[in-house]
Amino acid sequence: MREIKALFKQFKRENPSGQVTRTEFNEVMEQMGLVDPFLQERIFRIFDANNDGVISFQEFVVAWSVMSRGTPSEKLDRTCACQAREIPHDTRSHSLTCALVRSFVRSFV
Ligand SMILES: [Ca+2]
User: Fold this and answer.
1) How many domains does the chain divide into?
2) Among 26, 70, 85, 96, which is disulfide-ready with 74 (CB 3.0 to 4.6 Å)?
């Protein structure tokens, strides 16, 4: 997570608006070895709380703090709760997302 934060700061320097686009975010994830477009999309949506296609610094901090607090299980519960609000009637997709997010969260613990 420290690595993401450093990269976000770099983006902020390069982009005075302080926002990270989907393309930029995907580049960050690719640098971390997360190259699956489905996983990239899910994680981007966790961060992009207002769904405007860019991640503001505030959104980044909120998502980051959610994912960096508590036990891995608690992180997963919170992260999946976010996802459930976005895709409430697609339980199979939700389960897959949980599995993917679990892998993502575990990479930081
Ligand atoms: Ca946003």
Assistant:
1) 1
2) 70
State pTM to two decimals.
0.56
The Cα–Cα gap between 8 and 17 comes to 12
Tokens encoding 99: 């599995």
pLDDT at residue 15 in the model: 65
In angstroms, what is the span from residue 72 Cα to ligand 1's centroid? 25
How many whole angstroms from 60 Cα to the centroid of ligand 1?
Answer: 9
Query: What gap in Å lies between CA 86 and CA 103, rounded to an integer?
Result: 20
Q: Quick: pLDDT tens for 25-51.
A: 888 778 878 888 888 888 888 889 899
What is the residue whose two structure tokens read 């960050």? Answer: 28
Q: For residue 61, give its domain range.
A: 2-106
Which own/partner pairs from 4-12 qualify as long-range (CB within 8 Å, at least 24 positions apart)? 4/28, 4/32, 4/64, 5/64, 7/31, 8/57, 8/60, 12/57
CATH (domain of 52): 1.10.238.10
